[in-house]
Design a protein that fits this description.
Layout (H helix, E strand, L loop, with lengths): L11 E4 L11 H12 L3 H8 L3 H8 L7 H11 L4 H4 L17 E4 L4 E5 L9 E8 L4 E4 L7 E8 L2 E5 L5 E3 L4 E5 L4 E5 L5 E8 L7
Antiparallel strand pairs: 1-2, 2-3, 3-4, 4-11, 5-10, 6-9, 6-11, 7-8, 7-10
């Protein structure tokens, strides 16, 4: 079972783009599709996720806009990447992600943002994100599933990264780091201006293990 891609433990919100509106639209449809594909039931999903059947039903019917924490639990219970619940349906061919139509996941205080740079389906094993971190701000992430790798490059700013028991790493502009994402880890902006990072999440296909 996979954990979610890089998201901190703090409360988060999903922000829609200026032209198409609410980013929550379609989450219920994708949840129903994933459950149908896996042959699961609301009762089983409720047991695995720790969420009530009534709450899950409301999300599946589009009657309730789920929080990031709820989506986190659902994705973990289904064993799919987070992008499977929030991203557009998979399609073939080129697709432009316009900056003025970007969809981002932001902390409630706006000090951290994560912009998915992919169109995802539940089979994808690599995810690409653009991250911003406010001055002197830090975010934490839980351990992802065994074998998960995080690869990042600092585009702007100075970052400190602590992952599990490994020594803390300090990175400047242009520096890159690959580390195990299956341990708790923390990203901290050491500078007095906003930091910009690009992150690639690489998962192991546990179905072939």
């Amino acid at each position: 079972m996979r954990y979610l891609p890089f998201f901190p433990l703090e409360a988060m919100r999903i922000t829609g783009d200026s032209k198409t509106g609410n980013y929550d639209a379609g989450i219920g449809d994708r949840l129903r599709r994933l459950m149908l594909r896996q042959g699961g039931s609301l009762e089983k999903l409720a047991a695995l996720s720790g969420l009530g059947e009534k709450k899950l039903t409301a999300i599946a019917l589009g009657e309730m806009a789920p929080t990031i924490n709820l989506l986190w639990k659902i994705a973990n219970a289904l064993g799919v990447p987070f992008g499977s619940l929030i991203s557009a349906r998979h399609r073939r061919g080129a697709f432009v992600l316009r900056k003025d139509q970007q969809k981002v996941i932001s902390s409630n205080d706006g000090l951290f943002t994560s912009r998915p740079l992919f169109l995802d389906d539940s089979q994808r094993l690599v995810e690409f994100y653009e991250l911003t971190l406010a001055p002197h701000h830090a975010v934490r992430s839980e351990a992802h599933s065994p074998g998960t790798l995080e690869s990042l490059v600092v585009v702007r700013g100075h970052i400190e990264i602590t992952a599990g028991k490994d020594p803390t790493q300090r990175l400047g502009e242009g520096d890159a780091l690959v580390f195990d994402g299956d341990v708790p880890h923390t990203y901290r902006n050491l500078g007095s201006s906003e930091a910009l990072l690009y992150l690639v999440m690489s998962y192991v296909d546990l179905t072939e293990a």
